[in-house]
């Protein structure tokens, strides 16, 4: 059955790749943002990301031990953070750890910096060791749709240094598939370009099967043929395409 996804609907998806080569095209509406946690009203996330973050923290019993440090930022806030970091830390440090304004995942509402609860927390580089409850968070993240966005050893691909505190919500099954393959969002989106509605990626995550493919996204949106009896979801990839995920093994 032929389906139509408008550009506005596509840009509201969770798979947009945001980096210097792919600046942000759409920012979330204020009403789409909610507190990342009830006790952190000043740290905002897109609603679904906040729901799943709460479920993740509840699932590993991390209440009070992991805190949200930075979520959604306005373009002006990202500009100020970048300028302040250049002034205080120098350009080399800033280019390694702070995204350019307009190229920051924090402007999407889908990224969250988390930190181990401590008396003093570094806003730019919060402590998030690979031990204890923080390690449990990292191990469970993919099941709730989150990826560690800037893993160790991937700076040549992502353009950002290792940030063990920075997690990005991409949703399920994509987080699970990226974890299985050990790839970054850049690599994952690039690989999906090879799959079409006629020859989709047949994948399995969490014991369920999926068909995933990509179609061009034009100014008016995209049209594609999806099975009538299966649930599907779609998201712009911010690289000129629409990623369609069809649930249910074939």
From TrEMBL:
GO terms for molecular function: peptidase activity. InterPro entries: DD-CPase-like, VanY-like_core_dom, Zn_M74/Hedgehog-like. Residues 45-171 form the D-alanyl-D-alanine carboxypeptidase-like core domain. One of its GO terms (biological process) is proteolysis. Pfam families: VanY. This is D-alanyl-D-alanine carboxypeptidase-like core domain-containing protein. It comes from Ruthenibacterium lactatiformans.
């Amino acid at each position: 059955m032929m389906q139509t996804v408008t550009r506005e609907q596509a840009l509201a998806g969770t798979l947009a790749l945001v980096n210097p080569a792919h600046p942000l095209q759409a920012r979330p509406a204020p009403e789409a943002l909610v507190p990342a946690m009830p006790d952190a009203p000043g740290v905002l996330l897109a609603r679904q990301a906040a729901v799943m973050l709460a479920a993740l923290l509840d699932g590993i019993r991390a209440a009070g031990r992991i805190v949200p440090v930075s979520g959604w930022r306005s373009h002006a806030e990202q500009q100020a953070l970048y300028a302040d970091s250049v002034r205080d830390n120098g350009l080399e440090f800033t280019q390694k750890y702070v995204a350019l304004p307009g190229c920051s995942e924090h402007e999407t509402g889908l990224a969250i910096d988390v930190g181990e609860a401590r008396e003093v927390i570094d806003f730019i580089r919060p402590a998030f060791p690979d031990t204890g409850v923080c390690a449990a968070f990292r191990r469970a993240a993919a099941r709730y749709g989150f990826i560690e966005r800037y893993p160790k050893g991937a700076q040549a691909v992502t353009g950002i240094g290792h940030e063990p505190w920075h997690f990005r919500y991409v949703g399920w099954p994509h987080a699970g598939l990226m974890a299985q393959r050990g790839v970054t969002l850049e690599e994952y989106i690039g690989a999906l370009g090879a799959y079409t509605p006629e020859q989709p990626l047949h994948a399995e995550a969490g014991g369920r099967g999926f068909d995933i493919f990509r179609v061009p996204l034009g100014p008016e949106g995209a049209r594609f043929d999806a099975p009538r009896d299966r649930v599907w979801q779609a998201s712009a990839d911010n690289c000129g395409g629409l990623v369609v995920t069809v649930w249910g093994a074939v």
